[in-house]
Amino acid sequence: MMERFKLGDTATYTQTITDADIKSFAGISGDNNPVHMSDEYAEGSRFKKRIAHGLISASFFSALFGTKLPGPGCVYVNQSLKFLRPVYINDTVTARVVLTDIDVVKRRLFFDTICEVNRKKVITGKAEIYLPE
Q: What Pfam family is a match, any one (predicted)?
């Protein structure tokens, strides 16, 4: 099964972030930071308007791993994240994962993880995925 993967394998997922997404994520995560929830507060911030929770965009990596590459049954082991730019309401985020290393013995796949808005990186990181037999 591990032999079906090759370095450079890539998968993408695209979604536009809505106000409803932000409110739903706040309800699920408990993160009601006013920079996400309050127009008035956000206007006075360095961002000038409400921003999406960074982990909304980062969660798209989980969607890719669990449904596309490597796919159902895989287990997330590790993820690093660097938040480079804010994501605003109505931004369209494209998440991309790129296979960079394979450990056949430990059944681990290693990926670069990138989110972009308008071809500008907003999140970068690395992920490690375990693939059960």
A: MaoC_dehydratas
